[in-house]
Amino acid sequence: MNMLKAILFDLDGTLLDWRAIKVDWEAYQTDHLGKVYDYVNQHVYPLRERQRFFETTLSLIFDAWLDAKQSLLAPHLGQILVQSLEKEGVPRHLIDIETCLEAYDVQPIPGLMAFPDVLEELPVLKKTGLKMGIVTNAFQPMLLRDMELTTTGLIEFFDNPCRISAADVGYLKPHAKIFEAALHQLHARPEEVVFVGDSLRADVAGAKAVGMKAIWRKPEEGVSEFDSTTDRDGNLIVPDGTIVTLSELYPILDNLYDGWREGLNGGY
Fold first, then answer.
1. pTM of the predicted model as reported, rounded to 2 decimal places
2. What is the distance between the alpha carbons of residues 182 and 212, in angstroms, rounded to a whole number?
3. Which of 133, 127, 261, 126 is nearest to 186 (CA)?
4. Residue 238: its pLDDT value, please?
């Protein structure tokens, strides 16, 4: 019988609640790109027109995500900044990705919160002794997303190295490599891990394809316009369980892993 050793979570829409956030993303990007422009122009290399740098970078971001839909190759914010600066004539050897990301100055968006049930149930899951990790389809390195985990009070529940951004691995869910990277960090086999996420195609289909159990956290609107009930080969996606709140997770785990509570911190 397989033992349950770890639970992996998607981040956005599963742990973090973006529903009340109203952001003009182009204006948001332009504001932060302005900080990169100012830093490079003042300290690294004289740049040309400010607006041109904005347009070049935004176009590269759009094209990277458009390509990623088919290739599953993850965009990387730092690499996009490097490409844009090179197009503006900055010699590659003068561009440092880490410094550019620092200049970009990512800050948690005001109003971003963890779902209430997440704050209620993660402490309970933590007490079981199960390992917990995060796998997100972000184009920012996880170091930047960690700021949001800190601000929302979630970082304490994910104090192991298994906090993985697609940007760091190079592949987006549902590609197998990002799930395999998580398994490597957890030192676990696929059958010992459950994945919980709000996307049927990215989270559920991707996790099941590598041998994990997968639980769909059903969004309040059901299947979103960015999701699909079929995988990339057209097969119907069937989760191993469906929940609306994390409190519904326990009976599903009982069904999937008989006796999983025994031996966990004194038989949770």
1. 0.94
2. 11
3. 133
4. 96
